Amino acid sequence: MRSQARAWSKFFVKQHDGTREPLTREQLIQALEYSDDPEAQELINSVTRHVVSIRGTRPFWNRKRQDLEAYAYSLGCPGAFITFSPADLHWRSLYQHMPRYGEWLRASEPERMALSRYLLRQNPHIAAFHFYRRYCFFRDIVLRKKFNITDYWDRYEWQGRGSPHNHGLYWMENCPGTDMEDEAARDVFARTWGFHITAINPEPTRTVPQGEGNPLSVDPLSIEMTFLRLSQIVNRCQRHKCNTTYCLRARKRTGDLARDMEGAAADIEAANVASPERECRFDFPRALRELAAIIRKEGRSYYVFEAARNDNLMNHFNPAIVLGWLANIDISPCTSLQGVITYAAKYCSKSEKKTEPYCKLADQVLPHTARRQPLLSFSSRLMNKLIAERDYSAQEISHLLLNIPLQEGTRLVVAVDCRPLAQHARSYRVDEDVNETIGSYRKYLERNDQHEDITYLEYLQSYNLKTWRRLAGQAKKRVLSYFPRYRSMESSPQFNDFCRVKLMMSHPHRSPHELLVVGGLRFDSFAAAYKCCREHHDTHSDDHYGEPDTNELRAEDDEFELEIHEEPVADEDWHELARMLPDRPLEEEDIDILGRRDIDINYDWTPHVGRYTDNGILNGDYWKQRKAGNRRDLDVDHQPLEARDSLIREQRLVYDTVMDHFLTREPSQLLLHVDGGGGTGKSYLINLLSAHLQAAAAGRGTPVWRAAPTGVAGNQISGTTLHSLLHLPINKDFKPLSAVDMAQLQKKLRDNIRL
């Protein structure tokens, strides 16, 4: 992650300095003297925007939150929210991939738990990948078929001792409507979901019989699915246990709001003795109820689903899911878009501890900025600060190293810049230099005549943004993430911009000014033009940007205070070693202090003085100078003519074919494909041919250019790579050769034989 921070810092500086004069340290300090000022905020935000690409950071999750909100606006309210937790101390499917599996099977329950903890600590990568694959198979095989899932958005999170959890929102076919203001609709919603979700404990008074064993670690294929099996699992996994480090919180506000505490359990009362003002943020214990219902929680604007329950502490569950997953799950139907937006703000981009604003982080790193390349130093430090503002568990690190996605979804999200064209963000492509590229909106405005009648909405949702080819028929439409979302109230000063965006998405145009013309009439404002559009056009596709005079959905505040419970962490040996290094804090990567540490100052550098005096090292272009001074020479060592007699029959056939073609000066092209496995003499034949062709050229230089697909193969034949020879881009957009490059390449290849 720090390596990515360095790379993105260099890119940011290249981009910044390519458009204006480089900043000195004094100018940077002056620019950020008041970090709350708009100019300073613009610089800080331009740095943090680049951190979006570093997975797991706060800006990364903020972007994912915006993506989730775009899903909700585009696809409507999802059917259900489901959380999957692991039983990674018990799952047989996990430990069969671990070392010492036979010992794990034979062990008693206490011995097995101790061994599981040890194996989990030693093999976090296996646990991380197993959870990912288990969830993906479960989602695609069980959930998709049981609930007719059409779309989903899910993310991974690490809690407590570092085990992963998956939180997902799922869109389903034929879900009941979410018109919660209609009592009849609420009743249908509750009865429909009541068939699928319950909090009924099959054995509310169950006690574990002696010698019963662990229901989570048995082979699920050898166990019959009975109510006893269901009871064993839900009583082990689904009953909530309150504690101060997990769910007991103090409310942010006090008042006369009463809570329904019917049937409160004794363990909750005991937990609250030491801290009576704390309450469970998940509202346990909950009231018993015979039938599922839709209720409105106190202090909330939206309704929630409550399943039938006979156990105050039982989490919602679906029997099929909990029997298949064999670990704790939570499932709740989504009742409104408001609830989804609140979830996105509360959980999707949440941090493990209270985080500071970006401007405060900038204030902390600014005094430590280096004098040389100050902008690079500042941006690198700020990015590293964002990376290091929380802890990462071993399984999360393994998840990142294995390149497993942190978030997955069925739709591709496209960002839509809704600001006026002159204010649009600039797009860049990175090759040897930073080059500006055309943004999506400019590409749309400059489209070919054959796409004249296509709207910007159609282009973004259903076309390849580079080639303008329509996506395949089975491809899902893209989800559009609008920024900013202007207020749609007619009294708002942003209403004119709101109307401009609505026209921009639905009306084909070549210039933003054309949007002022509707039905052949030109209007003075976008608001007036859009009013005319609404009166006369009723066939526009839904752009999911909202309708006029509708309230904007905003996340509701959490009713509980955020509390941090830090557990003591046993340092690894390398942590202790890191603290012994001079001026080298564990949490910072301080490159700029190199040369000024005590160990550097006290060292006798005399023997090293004058060793590296090359100006190229000081100027940073050492390798460019070396390449310029050592041009590639494709000449090969002399080989006597008799060496051709060492060739076997097939090699000699190739040799004679190439030599005859060259010596007779045959103008037609010779295309010859020779196959052979490793060690069959291909490189020897190529080098011998090169030597004899070089001799036949009689001092005019070698007529041969040797090229291979890879660097290793090219080195074997003393040649180059094909992409280097032909100027083919690697992992970059294809660009036509410039006239100068084309002329040079044609000159280089005009009289050559390519091997």
TrEMBL record:
Task: Drop me one GO molecular function for this one.
Answer: 5'-3' DNA helicase activity
Domain Helitron helicase-like spans what residues? 4-170
Q: Which residues form the DNA helicase Pif1-like DEAD-box helicase domain?
A: 647-736
**Species of the source:** Metarhizium guizhouense (strain ARSEF 977)
EC number per UniProt: 5.6.2.3
**InterPro entries (UniProt xref):** DNA_helicase_pif1-like_DEAD (IPR010285), Helitron_helicase-like (IPR025476), P-loop_NTPase (IPR027417), PIF1_helicase (IPR051055)
Name of the protein in question: ATP-dependent DNA helicase
In the record, the note on similarity to other proteins reads: Belongs to the helicase family.
* Reactions catalysed, as given in the entry: ATP + H2O = ADP + phosphate + H(+)
Print the keywords alphabetically.
ATP-binding, DNA damage, DNA recombination, DNA repair, Helicase, Hydrolase, Nucleotide-binding
What cofactors are annotated for this protein?
Mg(2+)
GO annotation (BP), single: telomere maintenance
* Keyword set includes Transmembrane: no
